[in-house]
Amino acid sequence: MPGGRDVPYTLELNGEINSRIKKWVEGGGKYLGICSGGYYGSARCEFEPGTPKEIIGDRELAFFRGACIGTAYPGYDYKSESGARAAEVAVDRNAFNVPQSLWRADPANVRVYYNGGGYFATSDVLGSPADVDQDVTVLVRYAPDVSNPYNRLQKVADAPAVISCKVGRGIAVLSGIHPEYAWNYLAASSFTHPYNRQAVDLLRSHDAYRRRLFGAMLVHMKIDVDQEALEDDTGSGNSSRIPAKTPTFIVPARVSGVAAVATTMYSLNNAASIKGDAVVAGVTDAILRDGNDDIHIVNAATGNSERRVPYEYERTVLKHADPVAVPPWADKGDSASGNDEARDQTILVLCTQESLPGTKETSRFDMGLALKYMKEASAHTLGSWLMYSDVTGSTQTFLEKNTRLQALLPNGTVNVAAIQVSGRGRGRNAWISPVGCLQFTTLLRHPNLRQAPVVMLQYLYSLAAIEAIKGQPGYEGLPLRLKWPNDVYALYDAGSDSSGDSSDDVGEPGFVKIGGLLVGSSYKNNEFTLLFGFGISVANPLPTTSINKIIRDYNFKTGSRLCAMSMEKILALITAKFEELYRQFLVHGFEPLLKSYYRNWLHTDQIVTLADKGYEKAKVIGLCPTEGLLQVRSLLNPSVVYSLQPDGNSFDMMKGLISRKTN
């Protein structure tokens, strides 16, 4: 339960929903309440008493039987960082149920972001024994500078900042501080008061300690934690743990004909009219100064070299791509100004099939194997050229913001990355990019055809993704489905699986998201330029599940022996299937494909609630094949059919709720 304001939680969740949450935690679930989530998880919230911001009242969850009292420090303001600070807290390592080795050689006192949280009124705070301490362990305490909001002149010594509460067979960890919040999400200019002016510097210097504290809280709750996130910072000072950007390699994949390949290579080289400043490690580059990036175009080294791009050259050119050198809040200024320090730097390496990079440069994706699968799959345009980076910002943003390069790339080019540090989802959502997730952007130039409306292509792409996988012999029974408008879901039973683990602290099997699509578009000369940004979990079991985990579970349940799929193969299958369906779509439109779409979607006869229609109940009846509208029939008045736009509404699968999206 995140930070924010606790009162809206009470308005939305009091009653039946809180009862369900409490029952779920008591049955073995886990609750993590941070800041307002800590107030909300206590039996009583006492916030800023005697001030215009006062909020005092009982709370239903009551995982902690006492009160959460705040703010722990004065000066909190809802609309600014004026009351925020790098709070000093004392960590009781022995109170955590974690291996002591997790802490490394961290100091006992750690600086953590604080903004408006409370402290928990245990018996030592109250000054007398109380039953509020039952099944409660104090994990972290504030420094002695906390004051009582009822009397700011009174200090509260050793005030509990983070507590752990045993709740039936489950656990609730409540926190008044923000251990999840990294320093680089904060703008130094927001901190103006003497007590918080140095907050960013303090938080940055303690970031590794903060991460281990947060990791310890999760491990204490028996939640799996990425051990790499707990490691010490590297010598580069990149305490945000954002991996360094790597070169982007491009190679002809499905395109045939020497002339076509030569034309593209020549166009890319010729467009880069600015010569690099110096010859580094024997490499002379040329620079395409595009809308967002300075794109350094080089030819891949040939011969038996272990690297196609010398490391010294890569390190020199990409030094400006260090995410710490240009913090997230910095204004990059006018990208046309020529100020290299304010522009992204990218290396684009032109490869032939004989000069592909090896595992030293592309350790997470085998470009040679991808080319093999792409040639085996029957397609010509989609996947014509293959671009790949181990680490990039966003495959879609790179093509979207660099329009000169985009115009030079052949139709059907796919841009793949193993890790995106700025992945995008629908609306304001971010796309999490763990290793093992296949994420790529497909460039498609689509003519403005009445019989093939552009709005239907998002449905076509997501349908192609599912049919590409389920269309393989033996894989037809995999529980993969489509959620309107274009998400990929999988049926996942977290309680019992092929690993042999069985757990009582999980709910019933249900569908979870494993993939999604974001489409960007522009229109010129009666033609759409579309960028299909697609991601799907292939080999990463977290944060939900993955294709290969679903395959293992399917084998376990059915006795099948289906092989796991590689990212390289799935890329080839999806692009080939999309081309197959796209060719049909150009001639016949989407209507002949509706049967396949309905066979794979989650919404047949689903009862939904329309938030913008006074929470009216309606039944899903289908999809308009020309306008892409979801059609639902009112249960109150069956003669009324509502048509809902995919880009104006959000579909909450947990609630069956369709509501207007907010941007």
Outline the structure in words.
The protein is of the alpha+beta class and 663 residues long. Helix content is 22%, strand content 27%. It contains 15 helices and 30 strands. The strands form 5 sheets. A 12-stranded mixed beta sheet has the order 14-15-16-17-13-18-19-20-24-23-22-21, with helices on both faces. Helix 9 packs parallel to helix 14 and helix 12 packs across helix 14. It is globular and about 85 Å long.
- Major sheet: order of its strands? 14-15-16-17-13-18-19-20-24-23-22-21
Characterize the main sheet: 12 strands, mixed
| Apparent shape | globular
SS strand fraction: 25-35%
Radius of gyration: 27 Å
Oligomer: single chain
Distance between the termini: 22 Å
Number of strands: 30
State mean pLDDT (0 to 100 scale). 86
Q: Uncertain segments of ≥5 residues (pLDDT<50)? A: 235-240, 320-338, 501-507
Query: What percent of the residues sit in helical stretches (DSSP H or I)?
Result: 10-25%
Number of helices: 15
Topology, please?
Elements: H1 6-13, H2 16-26, E1 30-34, H3 36-40, E2 42-47, E3 55-58, E4 64-70, E5 85-91, E6 109-114, E7 118-120, H4 123-126, E8 136-142, E9 147-148, E10 151-155, E11 160-167, E12 170-175, H5 199-205, H6 207-220, E13 248-252, H7 258-271, E14 274-275, E15 286-289, E16 293-299, H8 311-317, E17 344-350, H9 367-376, E18 385-392, H10 395-401, H11 403-408, E19 414-420, E20 437-447, H12 457-470, E21 480-483, E22 487-492, E23 510-524, E24 527-537, H13 547-558, H14 567-588, H15 594-600, E25 607-610, E26 616-623, E27 630-634, E28 641-644, E29 649-652, E30 657-660
Parallel strand pairs: 1-12, 2-4, 13-17, 16-17, 18-19, 25-30
Antiparallel strand pairs: 2-3, 4-7, 5-6, 5-8, 8-11, 9-10, 11-12, 13-18, 14-15, 15-16, 19-20, 20-24, 21-22, 22-23, 23-24, 25-26, 26-27, 27-28, 29-30
